[in-house]
Amino acid sequence: MQSEQNVTVKKARIFLVDDHPVVRQGIARLVTDEGDMEICGEAESAADAMVKIKALCPDAVILDITLKGVDGLELLAEIVAFRSDLPVLILSMHDESIYAERVLRAGAKGYVMKEEAPEKVRAALRTVMAGELCVSSKIVSQVLGKLAGGATQTELSPLQRLTDRELQVFRCLGDGMPVRQIAELLFLSAKTVEAHREHIKHKLGIKSSSELLRYAIETRVNRV
Prior knowledge:
Elements: E1 12-17, H1 21-32, E2 37-43, H2 46-56, E3 60-63, H3 72-82, E4 88-92, H4 96-106, E5 110-113, H5 118-129, H6 137-147, H7 164-174, H8 179-186, H9 190-204, H10 209-223
Parallel strand pairs: 1-2, 1-3, 3-4, 4-5
C-alpha cells in the first residue's frame, strides 16, 4: 500500500482594488482567512490595477467604485474588455440602489456594500467565482420591477436618474474638483462637463451651481 502524500490545494488568486490601504488590509485578511484563497496583488488606482491584472491573471477581482483618478466603473469596463470571463465583485460604500444595477450592466458579477458582515462578503466572493450573480434581494426586486414595467422614470430617486457619466461628474464635484480638472480626468472638454452639470441640475431639481456643489459635497460626506 502506497504511503499517503500531502496534496497541495491550489488557492484561488484574488486581486484587490481599493484606494484606502487600511481597507485593503482588512479585506485581504478577510480573504486569506478562508484558507483556500489568497491575495495575488493590490492596487489603489485604475491605471496600476489594469497593468497588474494583465500581468498576474487573477481568478477574481474585488473592486471599489471610488478610486484615485479614473473611477471603478471605467476600470470595470476595461477589465471586462480584457477578460469578460473574469469575475468582478464590487465592494463599495455607495448605495446599492444607485450603483448595483449599473455595475451589473457593465459586466460585474456582484455588488456588496462595505457595511455588510464579513460572512456576506466571503459568500458573495464565492458566489461570483462560481459563475453566479450576487446582489441583495432588494436589487433583484428593483430589476424585476423594471422588467415588469413596474418602475417608471419618475419613480426613481434623483440620483438613479443620472447617467453613468453624469454620476461621475457629480462625484467629482463632491470631491471639490473644478470643471477643468474634471474635464482632464474624464477626457472631456470643459464645455461637455458644463453641459453634464446643467443636465444634473435639471434632473436633481437644483437651480444654481452653488446649490449643486453643496449637495454633491453633502452626498460625499454622507458616504464616507
